[in-house]
Structure prediction request, 322 residues.
Amino acid sequence: MFSPDLPNQEWSYPPSILIFGAPLALLPIFAAYFIWTFGTVFCLWLAVRPLKLGTLAEAAVLVCPAVFVNAIFGQNGALTTALLIGGLAVAPKRPILAGLLFGLLTIKPHLGILVPFCLLASGNWRAIAAAALSSAALFILTGLSLGFDVWHLFWTETRPLMTAILEAPYPQPYQANAATMFFLARACGAGLTVAYAMQAAATIAAICAAIWGWLPRRQVVHGERVVLTAVLATVATPYGYSYDTVGLAVAVAYLFSRRASMPRIFLALVWLYPAIAHLVNGIGLGIGVLVPLSLSAWMLADIRARERVTSTIADGRISSPR
Prediction:
């Protein structure tokens, strides 16, 4: 990982992420690596604290395979999950802080596809305004620090690179950890048009599910709404890998501690999957997206079933004689 000759490593991020990483360039590489790795895991711990999972459940998040994959590759999945989970968790009571975190999440914008729909569905206008302002502030700060031409170069150089990486013929070495509907379609031999269509269907379904879950009239505990959105975020993006699935571990920890109706073996397999994703993809299956897809479907069905029970009980109380 520390060699300049390591293949298949390309820079496909907005220049704003350099605001986080550039100060670490002043340090020796191993020191920078350890500060980055443990610092982002600490941010993840801070983000899950509002969910009140308990010590063991929090530990299960921090030592999950997805976090270890991040550590191995020096990736940013722990940080981006912290920004997403943290923002969603505090959005109702601390919308300004939530908006700040969502603005910072624009360092990896494809993981925040669902955020504006969640905020719109819940009518959280203060968080929307704060997110817009913090995004603009990060844009300006990046330009002032690195020169505004970095944004032009991002559009003319990095954006085509990102598209080329996504649309490269399947399989590629870096696709061993892929976990999206787009890559599932490509693994099945589909062309780009079909792959984009399948991903569009998955993204639209994830958006609809997120909106449904965040409507105020839904009888959903806020913590469950947060972790459901984290799972759906993996379904919504066309470009996601096993190191982007830390949110699944947060959902598993939450459900394990709060929902006895969820099969424990199923939750354990979801938690474990990032550790074996490369093996599954390596034999050409490319089924990684089915993990968040099945978990989110199960969660939505469970929520709907509980709503029906609550509605039936309420109707019974209304119709019963006094």
